[in-house]
Amino acid sequence: LLRIAQSFGTNVTVLSVLLPVVNRICWLCVDHWVQAPDASRNGSGHCACLGALQIEALVGSVYLRPLSRAAAPLQSVEEDRSGQSMTREEGTELLVVLLEGLSDLLQADIVRTLWLSFDADWRRPALLEQAIVCIADLFRDTTTTERQLPAHVVHLSTTVLARVVSAFVSAPTAAGGAERSASEQAADLANVREQWRRREVLASLMEMLEESPKKARAHFEKCGLMDLVPLP
């Protein structure tokens, strides 16, 4: 599937067949992830032996990469489109197929599992955040007053964003429907903030390495990542 996406990732006909298969695989992975026996789960309550690598590779290669390419011609003004690999019409057609696939993929339990397992884990890419950023960039202000997006693309974009939001609005409070205490909610929030802080530390290290790769050791010692990663 990844090889097909690499070779034909912007082909609308191929994606129309590929995306339903990818969605099905992601659903199966998450279903196993959530329902795996307690003995095979890690500290976060999710099974780490199946699903994470497959979902990361499929969502990243089949959805996120073509999504950014499809959005590019719709974000640029007319005079800046000479260097684009596809026309505005081609980008719009590709974007429609990808957004339809995302709106089908992002069921409520899938959204919550992806967020807990990727966006709220600094060791993995923030898949939901990347997808939302790609879509939100479509609505970025431009220098012209002309509406840049067709109405049906706006509708599909807002549908995907609404699915993500509604997944958390309708999220169950706890197993059995009991309300979580204030201390439990505060602990969860503190854990998420710590995960995001660690992700920011890692991002800052990568930026420093890009600026001066010869000072890799000094950057590693300075960024504070040594306190987060146990070394032998």
Features:
globular, mainly alpha, 232 residues, single chain
Average pLDDT figure:
77
Radius of gyration: 20 Å
Structural class of the secondary elements?
A: mainly alpha
Oligomer: single chain
- Parts with pLDDT < 50 across at least 5 consecutive residues: 37-42, 45-49
What is the beta-strand fraction?
Answer: under 5%
- The percent of residues in helical segments reads 55-70%
Number of DSSP strand runs: 0
Specify the biggest β-sheet.
none
Number of helices: 9
- End-to-end distance: 37 Å
Structural commentary:
The structure is a single chain. The chain is mainly alpha-helical and 232 residues long. It is 66% helix and 0% strand. The protein is globular, with a radius of gyration of 20 Å. The two termini are 37 Å apart.
Task: Provide a short characterization of the protein structure.
This protein has nine helices and no strands. By secondary structure, the protein is an all-alpha fold.
List the helices and strands and how they pair.
Layout: H1 2-8, H2 12-35, H3 52-75, H4 88-105, H5 108-119, H6 127-136, H7 151-169, H8 182-211, H9 216-223
Helix pairs in contact: 2-3, 2-4, 3-4, 3-6, 4-7, 5-7, 8-9
